[in-house]
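A reminder before we start the practical. When you read a complex entry, don't treat the lines as separate problems. The point of joint prediction is that each chain is placed relative to the others, so the output describes one connected object in space. Small molecules and nucleic acid strands, if listed, are placed in the same frame. In the example below there are two entries. Take a minute to note the order of the lines before looking further.
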Amino acid sequence: MEKDPKIISMTKDGIPSMRKTKKGLGVEEFSEQNKELKDIIHQMEDKLQGVLNQIRVEHTEERTKFQREMQKIIHSFEKRITQRFQELDSRKESSPQERRARMLKQLGNVFRKIINVPDFEFIRRSEEVDEFGLDPSFEEQCFPIFRFFHDQYWRVETQGVNNIPDTGRALIVANHSGTIPFDGAMIKVAVFLSHPSQREVRFLVEDFVYHFPFLGLAISRFGGVRACQENAERLLLNDNLVTVFPEGVKGLGKLYRNRYRVQRFGRGGVIRLALKTQTPIIPAAVIGAEEIYPLLYRSQYLARPLGIPYVPITPFFPWFGPLGLFPLPSKWSIHFDKPITFDQYGPEAAKDPLLVSRLNEELRTIIQEMIKDRLTKRLSVWFG
Amino acid sequence: MAPDSRNPMPTRTLALTGIHGFPGQKLLLWADQILAQRESKLVEHFDGIVAIDLHPPQTKLTKTRFFKLDLTETNVDQKLAEIFEREKVSALLHLAFQHNPTKHSGFAHELHSIGTMYLLNACGKQKIKKIVVDSTTHCYGAFPNNPNFLSEEHPLRGGVQSSYIRDRIDVENQMKKYQQHHPECILTVLRPCSILGPNIHNFATRYLSRKICLTPLGYDPLIQLVHEEDILRAFQMVLEKDAPGIFNIVGQGVLPLLTLLHLTGRIVIPLPNTVLYPMVHAMWQGNVAVVPPRYLEFLRYLWVADGIKAKEDLGFVPKYSTRETALAFVGSQRLKEVHLAAA
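Here is the predicted structure of the whole assembly.
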């Protein structure tokens, strides 16, 4: 959750405090609007303070929930205040020096966001985790870097996010691509930022991640859950939003020439899960993730000793060294379609293999159609 | 303690094995007191107690008859069958297990696998109506592909990690086979996770009572603990009412390992695996480590069990959460340091 250092920030105890803004508003010039804004800000501060004083949070789960609520409130206030300030700012005439200064400041913001990497100290411990290992404060620390990728680097556009229900469970099914699965994180960030109720998304990860020392830990503290039927059922029965990528490693390891061809959707586990728990499926298409690592060849040389399924050969990777592992800045867009419900089949239908297989293939076709449709509308890989 | 007019010969007795170790000692004391006071549900089921172990009970007991038997000697099942018949044993509480991996793996195998086999032979002959066995959630094994909450139906895979666990799994398999051959017998298996408490000594308590704890670098699995009082309560519940089946007995909630170690005030030294495993191997050979090196998987991967079946079918809800168990344990350690608590 990004803390805009200009307006309102949360101190460690969760008490919001306001910092002075340096936007060049002369008090004499805009005294009226300024006063109105100041009044609004003071009112909001008082309200927040009042809310904080009223609630006694002792139980750790409630505290987490409460912190999330606070962050959501502050984020929305922040947005509104920044908008207002920007309006006021744009009314002023800008000389070339001021325009340059503003551009430099924006550049500075970008750099600050890149440097603001969460601290992965060796003995990083999580104070509170939920039953699947999600640590909200770690998520918060990781957010700035994912936010950078979402806003500036990949410029993710989200459409159809209103298809995701405000409450209750849903299963988001998407195509999987890009050798390293950033699309899970981008869907999570996109839903959090664009959805009106800022829902939290959990995503399912393959087993082999948990073999590695830091990777499994980081992913599970960020919200990833090991992919198996029991875990997914438990998450859904607790009314969570779960993202699944049924293509799995097949989707990740697609060669560039096979891009955007949706591979087989596993053995129908997703459909069985949806039928058994009576969850609506929201098909999602992620465009742009294929081009972050254009995979030319999958090499088996040195793959087994390193413990990875293959070594990717991209136009940049082994030649430019570790720098070649940095993803390319294609333009992403994520599209959510209307939810598919399985109300007409009861939970017992999960045991019918022919039905499951047919529904699986139908789902795959729906997502393939969505992708084809968006690709024809896309003009450029890098600029949309 | 001979039968007389005030103490008539008991007609339905409860047999206990393993009364020298943790749940056995406390349960024997509890059962004896309860039966002497004639106030609880236990009196409806039993009149007296038979205790079988190598070491006699350390307190004076009114309703108990002690028999010194070594479960590993040959043909002990004949003697057991004789005792069961003479004392009219109607239920068996089998707690004769070691709760720690040990270097004497031969003896451990004899006690767990063969001892249980002899006991079950005797039970089968006498048609014992009820058997309660103490197992452990270590049997599930710690693997990266475990689901986050292991239910009782999950296969027991821990045998690849340790021969001690292989023996405990063998005990469970014998119980399953016994249930198939004797479907009218009420067989309960309780699987507690790591038990912490002021009076219990196992490898978890030894690990947490040292100042410095070694952990694998880059792994922070979720750990669950249960308090010893909750275990005792679970056994008491299962003795008082009939509940056939397998139940996970676990505390509420989970904690990451590093948080747990920080909570209990240990100095944590994370070491990479290539350094840690040989080091623990050397320490185990020198009797300094608490577990053999293959047990380190339990500090790397997830092995959290789900206690929901115990809650729904048995009505058992643990009073202590994992965090509270750890804090209670640390509190009692501090009291011991200043000699304010009994060992």
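Discuss with your neighbour: Residues 105-126 of chain B form the longest helix (22 residues). What might explain this?
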